[in-house]
Design a protein that fits this description.
Length: about 325
Amino acid sequence: MAAEPAENTAVKARARDLGADLVGIAAADVLDLNPPAPRWPQTPRRIWRECRSVVVLAKRIPWGFFWTQEQSVRLYAPHTVVMRLEEIALDLAYFLEGYSFRALPLPLQHTDPSLKKGAYGPLSLRHVAVEAGLSTLGLNLMLLTPQFGPRVYLAAVLTDMPLEPDGRLEEPVCLGPKCGRCLLACPADAVGHWNLDKGRCRTEAQRHGISALFQHLDRIVDAETKEAAKALVRSQETVNFWTALHTGAGAYGGCLRCWEVCPVGDDYEAHLKAVQAHIPDISGKRRRQLQEMVAQEQNGDRVPGLHFSTRWVLGNGASPRPPAKGSGHDEG
């Protein structure tokens, strides 16, 4: 393997010194050419035309969060990690500017209403992480790292510094439907065959996220009487949204069930298996669903979710047939 350029080594070393657990680099032009959803192009040069490189940072969630049964405590896991990541990204941006290049740490909680009604941020960080060699995507399209499985949060720093990009991983990280623990455990029944029903997922993962907030505001505006609108404004639900805006609790990461049961990652055996190995109340229907998925792949049948996400699920590995024209698969 060729030696890493000195600039890359220095940038990655600094990111780790600042507290990042994983660091990868993706080329802006590659990201521009391969948007995960072309209809809503989350691309670096849409944000900043001069961007040349994207530095991706990952910080793991403390394992203790996956042991506690106290939901109110668990809701704060994402917020605490994301706050730390934002500090790391900002400090790394200043470090890059010390080389006389410009840098832009992306705001992690920013939502762009022009991208699918606010359901997307400026970049899809899980897809960027794949391009930066940190992960591949799993059965439910969550990112999976070899070190920590899905149990990380991501940040990104855009820069016009011409860093050498890391290549995608050679092999997929996910065990696929032969494992399927994310599908078996999902409380919203949102996991498909290399796909995810985001609407269902949001009901658990983003109980007080942007879509739920829009719906709450619609209910206030559409209330039949002034008194009914006032009652909604003063309701517990409004208080919950205020809490989410203030702390992040419930706005994202409200459900980490698929993260905690995923056996991928060096950390699972040592820190999580003892409490997460058993998945209670597994229905026979979901087991049969997984068996059908395995048979479908063994027979070489076309899997729409896999065909659409091949680049990010399989990394540089095998490439199944491209999706048929007009298949109607929703890349959102």
